Amino acid sequence: MAHSLNPRYYSMEYLHGAPNRLPPHQDSEISKERKECLKKYYANEEERRSVNEEFASFSACLDEFASSDSINDRGKMPPMKWWVVHGSSTPNLQRLALKLLGQPCSSSCCERNWSTYKFIHSLRRNRITPQRAEDLVFVHNNLRLLSRRTPQYKCGEMWDIGGDDFDSMDTVNGGILEVANLSLDEPELEGVIFDDEDEVD
């Protein structure tokens, strides 16, 4: 959806930059997914129709979007700034665009999940089914998030090296950083072999 609302992908510089480039509103797959996304964002049919009309004005360079400044700025301004400057005539679409385009694009969350999955599904524990490993990754990440709400997170052993208060580490334990040993391994279960999801030998 954010791809459809990025004015850069409608600019002449982008479209002429490589052969066969289409603006997002002319790509059938992107249009189909955009419509599905709008159904989820706007359950009310009247609101959705209003947003679709606003999107039509934006994508076809109609009404306020037909000005030369609006068209020229599409490829030159950052998307959020472009929407702030030129999107006031379509308040619903502007609000949605600022919300979606303001999200950081990063794969770090996925990479964190992959490293947790690699830790869980190692050579020692290669008999775990993919669903069980996925469930363990889910539980591990939720426990990590829940641990941030506990008082020990801020005043306990510092295990999040390089976290939010990295500068304050010099004052902890006379400059010596203690690292907690966090593990998914349970000592009493290390010798147990899991044959199936529910059976334990």
From TrEMBL:
<protein>
    <submittedName>
        <fullName>Putative HAT dimerization domain, ribonuclease H-like domain-containing protein</fullName>
    </submittedName>
</protein>
<dbReference type="GO" id="GO:0046983">
    <property type="term" value="F:protein dimerization activity"/>
</dbReference>
<feature type="domain" description="HAT C-terminal dimerisation">
    <location>
        <begin position="62"/>
        <end position="143"/>
    </location>
</feature>
<dbReference type="InterPro" id="IPR008906">
    <property type="entry name" value="HATC_C_dom"/>
</dbReference>
<dbReference type="InterPro" id="IPR012337">
    <property type="entry name" value="RNaseH-like_sf"/>
</dbReference>
<dbReference type="Pfam" id="PF05699">
    <property type="entry name" value="Dimer_Tnp_hAT"/>
</dbReference>
